[in-house]
Every structure is written in C-alpha cells, then in structure tokens.
Amino acid sequence: MSTYILGLDVGTTSVKAVLLETDTRAVTASHALPTTSDIIDSSEIKAKEQDTGRIIDALNRCIGLLPRDKLQHVSSIGLSGQMHGVLFWKGESGCDWSNRDFFTARDTSQLITWQDGRCSGDFLSSLPKPDSHLSVATGFGCATILWYMKHRPEFLGGFTVAGTIQDYVVSMLCGLDGCVMTPQNAASWGFFNTSSDQWNIDILQGAGFPVTLLPQCVPSGGLAGKTCSDWHGIPAGTPVGAALGDFQCSVYSCMRARTDAVLNISTSAQLTFAMPADFKPPDSPHPASSISYFPYFDSSYLAVAASLNGGNVLATFVKMLTTWMKELDAELSDTCLYEKLIGCALNQETSDLRVSPTILGERHSPLCLGQVTNISASNLSLGHVTRALCRGVLDNITSMMPAEHLQQAGVSRIVGSGSALARNEVLRQEVERAFPQPVVYGQNADSAVGVAMVLCDRT
Questions:
Q1: Which of 10, 88, 211, 365 has the greatest number of CB atoms lying within 10 Å of its CB?
Q2: Which parts of the chain have pLDDT scores under 50?
Q3: Which fold has domain 4-249+448-457?
C-alpha cells in the first residue's frame, strides 16, 4: 500500500498542500487557497500584519480538499512558509483542538510579516551590530520584537512563545509548549550566527530583548516531533519536520545541478545559486551589498539576490487600475483585468518606456523607490506599460545579481519557478531575454513540493 508525505507551504498570499508518493516522489494531489488574511489598519500605514485565525482556517480548508483515503496513509508532514515574520502565542493554550479533527488558532497575536515597515532606518541604526554575516532589516523577527519592546512593551507581556507562522503550525501539531526553529528561519530573523547555529544571546540581552522568546534551534531537514492528535485523518504519532524557509524549499524542488541558478518570482523575487561546499560566509554583514548568503542544508549556503519587488509589484499595478476604474464607475475584476493586461503586453513585443519597479525599496537600498522614465506620447498604452513593468522586475533582480556574476560562478542554466512566473507569459519572455544562459521552468517547482522532497530524502 502506498504511503505519502504531506507538504505544506504557508505563504504570504496563499497556502498550498501537496501529497507526494513516498516511493515514486510523484505529486498525487495538490490544492492551493488564498488566505485573504491581510489586516488593514489606517492608523499604522507601515504595519503589515495578517490574521492568524484566517491563515489557519485557510490551511484547514486546503488540507480538507485532499483525498481523505490518502491522508490516512501519510507517513510524515513537512512545513515551509514565509520567512522573517513573527507570531506570538501562549505556550499552553496556543490553539483549540475541540473539533478533534483539526485545530484552530487561539491565544495568538496577529502575524507581523516580512513586509512590515515600522523599523525605520534610524531605529535600525540604533540597534547593536549582530554577530552574523547577515544584516538586520525591517520586517525581520528580532528587529520587530525590539521595536515592540521600545514602542509597545505591554503587547509582548501576554505571550510566552514566538516563531514564524510555519513554526507555530509545527508547535501546535506536535503539542509543544515552546517553539523549535531551523537555522533557515532563525537566520531570517536576524541576530543569529549560522556558523555556530546560535542566537546572539548576549548582544540581544544587552539591548533589552526578551530572550526567553527565542526558539530552540534544531537542524534544517530534521524532525520537530510527532502529531499529538489525529489531523484531517492523518494518524496521531505521525512525524513532523521542523519548519523550513519557503525560499530554500522552492530551490530544493527545482535545482537539479550545482551549475543551475534558480529565479523565483512569487510575491517577491529571488535569484540564487549554490556556493561551493567549503564556502564560509564573512564574519560581518555588508549592508550595501545586494547579495546575501542564506543557509541551505548540511552547512551549505546559497548566494541570493533577494528582492522585495516581484509579483507584488504587478498586483499593486492591477489594484491601482481597479481602484481608478471603480472611481470612474467602470468596474472589472482583478483576475479579468490581469488577463487583459497580459494580452495587451503580448501584442506589444518591446517598449522604450522604462519602469524601475522598486516601490518597496530594497533591503540594501531602502530609499531607492520606483520611477517611470522615457515617457512619450507613443508609449502610454496598457501594452507598453505592462511590458515595461515586467521587464523592470527582471532588470531590477539582474542588477542585484548581474549575468557576469552568474557566469563567473559557473552557472550554465536558469531554472524559473514561482506563481508569478507560472501565470505570466510576458514575464517569462522577459526572463528569456534577460539571461544569456538557457532558461527552463521547474515542473511542480514550489515550496510545498520542496519541503515534501526534503522529508522524502532525509528522514
């Protein structure tokens, strides 16, 4: 009888669940659902938060769409999710299992996401320097906690545990009172040394950080525990992997050779390749550098150009147009408008319009915002603008990691992945124009598949 690995990804805009057959590594079922969990708070414009209850409800609904007979034969569960963000909960009452078949969120905070912008440049410069090769930016878990300690210390008093959203799900599934976290997610919080796999305890304590909130670190690719109850038909006692970063899992799902570079464009965008096995990161960060080194597996690293501006830029463009149309009493759904924009751009093969799409800035250059240049009377059609916007997304990520850098690293192929690339032919055309190397697209290349593959390979 076949057994399956359940791979789950809790992303910024959606959740996805896949069932991977253990023997063949084939995806036998998958579903994705939007979380529609964003919290709009006009009093805090730079806050980016999501409703934890809605995220867990979407996860439950998504898993509920998978075949129940296969869920009963799941041999292990893996989770990945959006990195950098932080969620707080009460260790002994963080969820409610009264339904018996699944849990719901209880006694948790909202999720403060990686897009949160409340840590200003002045605030970040006031923090101590981390003992890490990675810089600290707004939206990083440790920076967010320090911001709360300064501005709303009473908020933290009601919680005993902190982690990413995927760490929270793992803790609830395993019935843990605390939180375990892999170096992949710990590094994304900042103030974590990936060489020693240790938090900067002394530095954080000196800054007034509540170090009891720091999760216990466990190896990437290892287990966190076993399910404490039946879950959607999955038996109690099923092994659960410690949560991984969505970026690393997306890479794992489609990087077939060390000479591959992976371009992932989903909500944000990343371009990455594997560093040599003996690579050691520098002792201290280089804040002005557009390339970072993210921990991967088995003490290895990925060189990463991690852009804040990806599919979210196109989504913002669509939202802007739908808002304008609503004001003009000419409404059209986002989905219908998106399809029309892609069609217009496909009919406009090139454009001399130039769009710099960095509406969110970049971590290495937060004040460099978006621009539109070379505007003329002949390039203002929707086809021109959409084509220029898609090319701008590619121009931005390749400026962060130029083609020459990839060639020097021995990269011979680009593997494209991510939801924005999958649904946007114009973006794929611009990818193929941007790189001298051949471009292929990963089949089933996503974080949910990747985390299931990790468990299949490593447990």
A1: 10
A2: none
A3: Nucleotidyltransferase; domain 5 (3.30.420)
